[in-house]
Design brief:
The protein is an alpha+beta fold. The protein has one domain (5-133): Glutaredoxin. It has 3 helices and 6 strands, in the order βαβααββββ. It has a 4-stranded mixed sheet, sandwiched between helices. A hairpin with a 2-residue loop joins strand 3 (96-99) and strand 4. It is elongated, with a radius of gyration of 16 Å.
Length: 140
């Protein structure tokens, strides 16, 4: 079985759909509820490097203190932004998935399909009713 980790927020529909797609490939991932167990700054740096992303690429605005902290201000350095994420893990956008095929911020949830090493095992319908995988396990 491939080793897969998801940085997950169970209150987020996109995160729940991503987790379900991973499980639909026959894999039970390591689930890190990052609001309870936030990644360290060094771990975040490693994830960003593996994704080829910047800190700003993973900042979440909606439902966070982003605006009140003025994080859209371009004068904040990456180190400062990482410190804000460490203080307020809700600022980290989710879900981030790590597989042997890569690391990705899975928004939309079906972005995870590009880095899953095993195929989908059956149909999958997102929580909102959108069909993503057909009865044969193929992407729609």
């Amino acid at each position: 079985m491939p080793n897969i980790t998801i940085f997950h927020n169970p209150a987020c529909g996109t995160s729940r759909n991503t987790l379900a797609l991973i499980r639909n490939s026959g894999v039970e991932p390591t689930v890190v509820e990052y609001l309870k167990n936030p990644p360290s700054t060094e771990q975040l740096r490693q994830l960003l490097s593996a994704m080829g992303a910047t800190v700003r690429d993973v900042l979440r605005e909606k439902g966070t203190p982003y605006a009140e902290l003025d994080l859209g201000n371009p004068t904040w350095t990456d180190a400062q932004l990482l410190a804000f994420i460490e203080q307020h893990p809700i600022l980290l956008n989710r879900p981030i998935v790590v597989t042997p095929m890569g690391v990705r911020l899975c928004r939309p949830s079906e972005a995870v399909l590009d880095i899953l090493p095993l195929p989908q095992q059956g149909p999958f319908v997102k929580e909102d009713g959108e069909v993503v995988i057909d009865a044969r396990g193929n992407r729609v």
